[in-house]
């Protein structure tokens, strides 16, 4: 396509002076939504106008210096700020349960039974890291875009929590009746000396989580879009493999990529300064991520979903295998 780039340099300024033309480049001609193998000079216009409504001087020629052209309607081009209010909201942007800070809108999926559209992200993003019985979240809770940390207000509600897979913490408060009875007796004595203190029993567990995931129902389908910011549409479901190149589109670090370095991983993850949880069957990759990227969909080179990012360190990110997420939440792409 060397000749195409030479012609591009030659005609760039002239073409950009044409009304409605907002960009020009080199690519492959498309027929409908299908990319062909034919190279072309791509002319981007804000809106396509019927040829009958244009003067001859305003029409993009079908060929330039013998090379095919392709006119693409791109709309109005603007900066995409991932932490701003975006309508329709897109995967890769800021989102969150009304009680949390902010995370990432992972993907738009479908309920396997009803076919309704749902927003996919982590439990700790859409359900406030709930174990299902702690009152942190319940079905119907407001989901904001952007998330509260990024300025999201009640008026920015775009969805309601539908369901989530509970998170098992280590340790967690005991629900044993005997322990509760002992604590009750102890607290009666403690209050005589230290009214501001109370006794609680916790149980330590090595039970593990295999996912950190939840889904929310958009208030209406027009509030959300399907394409991952800067990465395009999801092209189905794949399987993570050691050594595979993967990438994600996240609220904080945007698009980053790297290689899968370990599979079948069991590790301890800090949920906060005071809480932790064990996760098994996880995937580790040397993809850069930071707080706020949680919930990002991880895709392969063909844009197939392979995981859901939920944790990371200074050097690696950790993600759930996507098939576990789909099976447990009963969703599909």
UniProtKB/TrEMBL annotation:
Protein name as catalogued: Nal1 N-terminal domain-containing protein
Q: Which organism is it from?
A: Desulfallas thermosapovorans DSM 6562
Q: What is the lineage of its organism?
A: Bacteria, Bacillati, Bacillota, Clostridia, Eubacteriales
Q: Where is the Nal1 N-terminal domain?
A: 13-68
Which superkingdom is the protein from? Bacteria
Q: Give the matching SUPFAM superfamilies.
A: Trypsin-like serine proteases
């Amino acid at each position: 396509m060397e000749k195409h780039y030479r012609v591009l340099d030659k005609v760039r300024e002239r073409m950009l002076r044409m009304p409605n033309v907002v960009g020009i480049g080199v690519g492959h001609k498309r027929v409908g939504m299908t990319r062909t193998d034919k190279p072309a000079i791509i002319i981007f216009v804000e809106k396509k106008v019927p040829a009958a409504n244009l003067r001859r001087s305003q029409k993009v020629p079908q060929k330039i210096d013998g090379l095919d052209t392709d006119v693409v309607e791109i709309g109005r081009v603007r900066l995409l700020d991932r932490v701003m209010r975006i309508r329709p909201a897109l995967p890769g942007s800021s989102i969150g349960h009304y009680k949390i800070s902010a995370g990432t809108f992972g993907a738009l999926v479908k309920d396997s039974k009803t076919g309704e559209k749902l927003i996919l992200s982590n439990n700790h993003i859409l359900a406030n890291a709930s174990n299902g019985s702690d009152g942190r979240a319940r079905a119907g809770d407001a989901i904001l875009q952007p998330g509260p940390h990024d300025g999201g207000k009640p008026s920015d509600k775009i969805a309601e929590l539908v369901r989530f897979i509970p998170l098992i913490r280590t340790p967690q408060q005991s629900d044993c009746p005997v322990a509760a009875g002992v604590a009750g007796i102890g607290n009666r004595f403690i209050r005589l000396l230290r009214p501001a203190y109370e006794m609680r029993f916790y149980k330590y567990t090595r039970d593990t989580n295999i996912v950190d995931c939840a889904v929310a129902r958009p208030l209406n389908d027009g509030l959300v879009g399907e394409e991952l910011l800067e990465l395009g549409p999801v092209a189905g479901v794949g399987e993570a493999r050691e050594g595979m190149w993967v990438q994600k589109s996240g609220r904080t670090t945007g698009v980053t990529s790297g290689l899968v370095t370990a599979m079948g991983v069991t590790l301890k993850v800090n949920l906060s300064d005071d809480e932790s949880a064990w996760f098994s069957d996880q995937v580790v990759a040397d993809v850069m991520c930071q707080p706020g990227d949680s919930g990002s969909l991880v895709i392969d080179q063909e844009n197939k979903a392979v995981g859901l990012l939920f944790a990371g360190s200074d050097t690696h990110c950790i993600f759930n295998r996507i098939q576990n997420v789909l099976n447990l939440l009963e969703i599909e792409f």
